[in-house]
Amino acid sequence: ETGFEDYWRGDSNAAAGFFRVGGELRPSQQQQFELDFGYHTLPESSRNVVLDASYTRRFEKWAVEAGFERDLRFDSYLALVGDEIAGVSIGAARENRFYAVTSTRRGAFGARFEPSLGWVDALGVSANPFVGLRARLEHRILERGSVEIAPFYGLEIQHYDEDAFGFDLSGGEPYPGGYFSPRVFFEQVPGLSLDFRWGGIHHLGVSGGPALQIVKQSVDGTRFEVGGHARMSRVTFLTGSLYWAVDLEFSRIGEAYTRVGLATKLTFKF
């Protein structure tokens, strides 16, 4: 996979190209090794290697997965591309995460649990360890022809060793770093997932819901926030081997940050 990306903040922008290559090895129907490697040409090119390596084992009703992932942080423009503050380059934060996933699907009910631990490294600042847990429960209430409807409940808990959301290099919390890293972040998302298929060549998936959040930072103390997450994915099969996909994502973490992402992709399978 290869493509072009552009990120902007006001009059500033950072354009780049990227590529990713991945593969799977399946010794049996129950086991799978996966390796995905990528590179971005963003300004801080020495920090733009991304990686996801995992092992999956499937049982009769459960699946377990363990792996390591290094990826870009999209919390803010500074966290993604870096910037110069008082003559010192900071930002360009990258997340390094060990994770384990347990998932199951029993009829209309699905569940997924994902504990993780790791660290965030960024230019000009020390590494920041974290631990977290993500979970999702889903129950399909309608599956009729080309339509599926499933309410879900999502949960996320994150704890960082330091609040590195600041930009002041003189010291004191929040420490410089420019990425969202509260001492405690707790989020609940009651939402709805909708899937539509028609004409044999079109697929539209929409999911999202409001987010009820508790944020504990070093300066502001504990506060309650209201945010939300939403995603829309549209896939059109142009031929038997060629399809076009458009993904639109929205995330809001209270007053900390809002992110909108748009990606389009043309894929040929052979």
Summarize the structure.
This protein is an all-beta fold. Helices cover 2% and strands 72% of the residues.
Q: What would you say this structure looks like, in words?
A:
The protein is mainly β and 270 residues long. The chain has one helix and 16 strands. The chain has one helix spanning 77-81, and strands at residues 2-9, 12-28, 31-40, 49-58, 62-72, 83-85, 88-106, 109-123, 128-139, 142-144, 147-160, 184-198, 202-217, 221-237, 242-253, 257-268. The chain has a 16-stranded antiparallel β-sheet that branches. The longest helix is centred in the N-terminal third of the chain and has 5 residues, at 77-81. It is globular, with a radius of gyration of 20 Å. The relative contact order is 0.10. The model has no long low-confidence stretch (mean pLDDT 92).
What gross morphology would you assign? globular
Taking the sheet with the most strands, its summary is: 16 strands, antiparallel
What is the number of beta strands? 16
Mean pLDDT: 92
Helix content: under 10%
| End-to-end distance | 14 Å
Number of helices: 1
Reading the helices and strands in chain order gives EEEEEHEEEEEEEEEEE
Beta-strand content? over 45%
Q: Any idea what the radius of gyration is?
A: 20 Å
Poorly predicted runs of 5 or more residues: none
List keywords for this structure.
16 strands; globular; single chain; mainly beta
Fold topology:
Layout: E1 2-9, E2 12-28, E3 31-40, E4 49-58, E5 62-72, H1 77-81, E6 83-85, E7 88-106, E8 109-123, E9 128-139, E10 142-144, E11 147-160, E12 184-198, E13 202-217, E14 221-237, E15 242-253, E16 257-268
Antiparallel strand pairs: 1-2, 2-3, 3-4, 4-5, 5-7, 6-7, 7-8, 8-9, 9-11, 10-11, 11-12, 12-13, 13-14, 14-15, 15-16
